[in-house]
Structure to design on (364 residues):
């Protein structure tokens, strides 16, 4: 457990907390981008150990959470077809659509399979030429290289019965929407280390300059997050607005060049709707024309779908950092992991799920 323990050392954590208290003189609000970071913060109680002047705002960093309701309904429609083998990572199966989820489709007899890599789906398609195999390609930039490779291999091997329902979203445009909002209260960001491992952080540099906000590329362990907070507060206190890389053991400024090249070969940037937020221009990926033969959205003719979010669900406000989960009137009541109103409660990286698991009914 060496490589976990060294980033969870209580003695070093206390030192970071002491230093954060020492340098903090003004109220600051900062947002962690990734849901994995949110879970680490809530699980470790980091937010409760910080100075009262520091507010941590939970961001839209859960790709499961921001997958629009219409796309969940499309996935359910495709998975319900007798000729289809529908493949997905396990965290998508319980995300609620308008009427049911993919797990219900599986219980009703649909061939819905959990896979651990999109390449598993390509193999399944090769082994089942009489079936249409669809992979639910959800994620931020982190999972885009593997999804691109699956499409590329299927195309190269002429596996025509493989397609992908694409729901990729991009982090920088979402950050810009948050920063440009009249309701914005975010003064600094903890950027997601795994996204930056793939993409680097050059895209964040114009944002830091334009909106005068520090952005610190941060990991996921308690010491990573505490160091990221310290670096962000230090910049704010000194009036600096730069992109700094705390996560140097994984991230380089230019990112992973071969992975980025593969993404650009298979995908192109497009407008994308985010669940609870709305359409964000140039915030998603779609398959390039060369690969549209593997686009499940076109193959199954499901372009015109619309759906209405439950009125009582405030997931959109939570994803934008305007509200916290325990400020929802239905939190822990009508909305639970067993019966979620929105994806932020059911996802393993959702902010609502973190609060329910580690601070259930706090303040109720």
């Amino acid at each position: 457990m060496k490589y976990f323990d060294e980033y969870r050392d209580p003695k070093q954590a206390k030192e970071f907390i002491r230093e954060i208290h020492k340098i903090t003189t003004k109220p600051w609000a900062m947002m962690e981008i990734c849901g994995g970071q949110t879970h680490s913060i809530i699980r470790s109680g980091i937010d409760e150990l910080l100075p009262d002047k520091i507010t941590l705002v939970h961001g839209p960093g859960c790709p499961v959470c921001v997958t629009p309701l219409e796309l969940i309904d499309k996935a359910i429609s495709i998975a319900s077809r007798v000729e289809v083998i529908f493949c997905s990572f396990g965290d998508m199966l319980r995300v609620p659509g308008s009427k049911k989820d993919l797990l219900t489709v599986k219980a009703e007899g649909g061939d819905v399979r959990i896979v651990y890599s999109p390449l598993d789906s390509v193999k399944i398609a090769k082994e089942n030429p009489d079936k249409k195999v669809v992979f639910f390609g959800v994620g931020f930039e982190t999972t885009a290289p593997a999804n691109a490779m699956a499409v590329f291999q299927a195309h190269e091997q002429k596996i025509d019965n493989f397609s992908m329902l694409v729901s990729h979203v991009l982090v920088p445009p979402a950050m810009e929407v948050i920063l440009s909002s009249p309701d914005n209260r975010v003064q600094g960001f903890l950027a997601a280390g795994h996204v930056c491992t793939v993409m680097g952080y050059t895209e964040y540099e114009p944002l830091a300059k334009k909106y005068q906000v520090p952005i610190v590329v941060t990991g996921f362990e308690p010491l990573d997050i505490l160091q990221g907070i310290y670096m962000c507060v230090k910049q704010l206190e000194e009036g600096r607005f730069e992109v700094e890389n705390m996560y140097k053991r994984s991230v380089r400024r230019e990112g992973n060049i071969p992975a980025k090249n593969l993404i650009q070969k298979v995908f192109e940037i497009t407008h994308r709707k985010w669940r609870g937020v709305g359409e964000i221009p140039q915030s998603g990926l779609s398959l390039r024309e060369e690969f549209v033969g593997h686009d499940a959205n076109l193959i199954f003719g499901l372009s015109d779908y619309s759906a209405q979010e439950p009125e009582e669900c405030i997931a959109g406000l939570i994803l934008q950092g305007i509200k916290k989960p325990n400020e929802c009137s239905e939190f822990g009541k009508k909305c639970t992991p067993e019966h979620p109103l929105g994806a932020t409660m059911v996802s393993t990286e959702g902010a609502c799920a973190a609060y329910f698991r580690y601070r259930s009914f706090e303040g109720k």
Notes: The CA atoms of residues 17 and 49 lie 7 Å apart. The chain has 18 helices and eleven strands.
